[in-house]
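Provenance

Sequences were taken from public entries as deposited. Structures were produced by running a predictor on each sequence independently, with no templates supplied. The record for Carbohydrate ABC transporter permease from Nonomuraea terrae is shown for reference.
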Amino acid sequence: MTCWPPGHRLSRTTASRPQPARGVRPGRGAPTGWREGRDVRSSGPTAIPRFIGRFVLPALFAALFAAPLWFMVVGSLRPAGWPPPRTLELLPPEPSVAAYARLPELIPLFRYLANSAMVVAVAVPVTVVVASLTGFGLRLLTPAARRRAVLGLLAVLLVPVTAVWATRFELFRLAGVVDTYVPLLAPALLAGSPFLVLLYTWAFGGVPDSQLGAARLEGAGWLTIWRRVALPQVRPATLAVAVLAFTFHWSNLIDPLLYLHSGDRYTYPLGLQFLRLLNPTDWPLLMAGCVVATVPCVVVFLLAQRILLNDDPLAALRSGGRR
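Predicted structure for Carbohydrate ABC transporter permease:
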């Protein structure tokens, strides 16, 4: 029975058939001529803030972080030898790739890139393995012991890197490994940074204790549980650690500057610094070198994003359980 408000006058059409409730859409068999109700939750004043938070703000943040990359590419496409522009240029006035062609002529570009690639190829897997093993070990501690370990890692994280440069250099000098890649790979043996260990510790905290206990009842050792049960469930954390480790070792300038003395062992960031000292006024040449240094990091980040978006978190666990 339909209740009408006081003073409402029923027309002949209105009185002949009941009206649908507000906010309810009629079914497929509803008579024609009914006005379909609208869902008040999908429209109204809340739609605009939702649109701003979902599209406008991410677009603004993306433009904010992409602007330096864009202006760097634009600066590298200026004619060779041109000075820096006085104002920001959205497009190069006379596009030219002469700066990229001159890079291999002034520095051994491909040797520097190969040296950096070799360091990264060793350091990134070692960092992932050491950080994940350490984080998994902290996950197995009691809550009180884990809390103390996390506080210790946070305390180490607060120590500035510059405070240990002299000590590290003296240790590597006494070990006789200066002018080798050992000092560049040594941070990977310590998981790179306490932050990466904490990241894995928090990620492994989401692995249920029931799965770890069931694996132990089946006779699996802790290394097997780490590899087949725990690690497949924290693939997003593994991708994040790999990207962070790649970015650090690829763009590391201080360690090669301190420990590498032979020019044939220079990594690309140190070679780029040498290029800046060699020709500090050629702005397009310097920007071209920066673009070459930035492209691998961007490519690795995009690949990690693609893997993460297309990843099935249970697929690796199922495949690991069938081995």
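Residues 87 and 287 are 16 Å apart (CA to CA).
The two ends are 65 Å apart (CA to CA).
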